[in-house]
Amino acid sequence: MTEEPVHRADLRIDVGVLRHNVALLAERAQRSGARTMVVVKSDGYGHGALTMARAALDAGASALGVAAIDEALQLRRAGITAPLLCWLYPPGDDFAAAVAADVDLSASSRAELDAIIEAARSAGRTARVHLKIDTGLNRNGCPHELWPDLLDRAAAAQADGALEVVAVWSHLACADEIGHPSIDAQAERFHRAYEQALRAGLRPIRHLANSAALLTRPDLHFELVRPGIAAYGLDPVPQHGDHGLCPAMTFRSTVVQAKRVQAGESVSYGHLWTAERECTLALIPVGYADGVPRSLSGRMQVWLAGRRRPVVGRVCMDQLVVFCGDDPVGEGDEVVLFGTGELGEPTAAEWADELGTIHYEIVTGMYRPRVTRTVVRTEVPT
Q1: C-alpha count within 13 angstroms, C-beta hemisphere, residue 86
Q2: Which of 144, 180, 195, 289 stands the most exposed, by the fewest C-beta atoms within 10 Å?
Q3: Helices (H) and strands (E) in the chain, counts
């Protein structure tokens, strides 16, 4: 399937595919007059934050988003100079370092805003701030009853030169459920919060649309959109149709042993599977320590020697076993645990469906100490 060498457990990250996805999303946003901020938190959803940051900016994104200040500072140290927003902090986090590195900061409370103002004055720089209103997700964000006070404090600090209010923003709870009534309800709350910001003398941009809203609600694009999972090729709204996205991550391994076993022989811990006839079994050196959920035991397939083949017996910490019938397989043969699905191999979305979770969890959980990451670039037809 690939020409580059396969390691014991390897994530193949295709930069050409990442660029393709971002270009598609940025072009869609541009139709509404919006710019694109690509979210690269959690080490780029497992794909590599720096890899994705460079690919996204090359493909038309104008800004990047992360959750933690440490994530932002790592990108700055790596030479990323584009606008970069950070939005979630534990108490006592180092706002001064973020302000000094020209990282935009989100404020969801008066306490956060005051800490950012203090850091800006300490650093002798003007902080760039995005004010976050809670419109119904009820996680991070300023409650509506405290919003006027936050706006007044921000407007006063802006007049003093301590900060610049760049944006008002929020996050949608059910954008991946097309037509869910909460989407319009949140949009209306967001509109009211923005109108209050204007009345307070602020002139911020707005951003609300995540991947799903970018793809389904152009009326919510405003001045900036924030795609995350879609930029990595995993569609948050496949029920809406084919959006031309392609997964950029392939999880690969290799056969370390192939052997014939007789009928009646059982496999792996607990002997949950027994051969009904003589057959060939292939041993693959990956397991739950490498991101293969043990709960997929007896419920997953891999791509090996040109076809899908079932994993039999329990998934172990370091290894799993594949049933190959009478087909010839041997040491060194490549195994794809999930990929793009283009050749018929399993996908991260299939793993998620089988586990009752979302593909976000699969890819972000894949990068582990024993798993290498190989970056390649292919050209994706447009």
Answers
A1: 27
A2: 195
A3: 11, 19
Distance CA 71, CA 91 (A): 17
Coil, helix or strand for 168? strand
> Same domain, yes or no, for 150 and 231?
yes
Q: Tell me whether residue 10 is in a domain.
A: no
Strands 104-107 and 84-86: parallel
Residues 246 and 17 sit within 8 Å (Cβ to Cβ):
yes
Catalogue the active-site residues.
Answer: 41, 269
- Provide the residue range defining the domain that includes 288: 249-376
**Rounded distance between C-alpha atoms, residue 81 and residue 67, angstroms:** 17
The DSSP letter of residue 236 is S
Question: Which tokens go with 184?
Answer: 């319009």
pTM over 0.85: yes
Give burial (CB, 10 Å; 0-12/13-18/19+) of 155.
middle
With contact defined as beta carbons under 8 Å apart, do 325 and 282 qualify? no
Maximum separation of any 2 CA atoms in the chain, in Å: 81
Same domain (yes/no): 209, 265? no
**Structure token pair of residue 152:** 């007044």
6 is a domain residue: no
Q: What element of type H or E holds 48?
A: none
Q: Phi-psi bin for 363: left (phi > 0), alpha (psi -120 to 50), beta?
A: alpha
Give the integer Cα–Cα distance in Å for 337 and 325.
18
* Tokens representing residue 123 in the block: 């650093």
Residue pointed to by tokens 């800490």: 115
Per-residue pLDDT at 367 = 85
Whether 8 is covered by a domain: the verdict is: no
- Residue 198's φ and ψ, nearest 5 degrees, are -65, -40
pLDDT along the chain (382 residues), means of 10: 67 97 98 98 97 98 98 98 97 93 97 96 95 97 98 98 98 97 98 98 98 98 98 96 96 97 97 97 97 96 97 98 96 96 96 97 93 90 64
Q: How many CB atoms lie within 10 A of CB 357?
A: 13
Q: How much of the chain is helix, strand and coil, in % rounded to 5?
A: 35, 25, 40
Indicate if 269 and 303 belong to the same structural domain.
yes
Let me know if residue 119 belongs to a domain: yes
| Torsion region of 241: left, alpha or beta (phi above 0 gives left; psi -120 to 50 gives alpha) | left
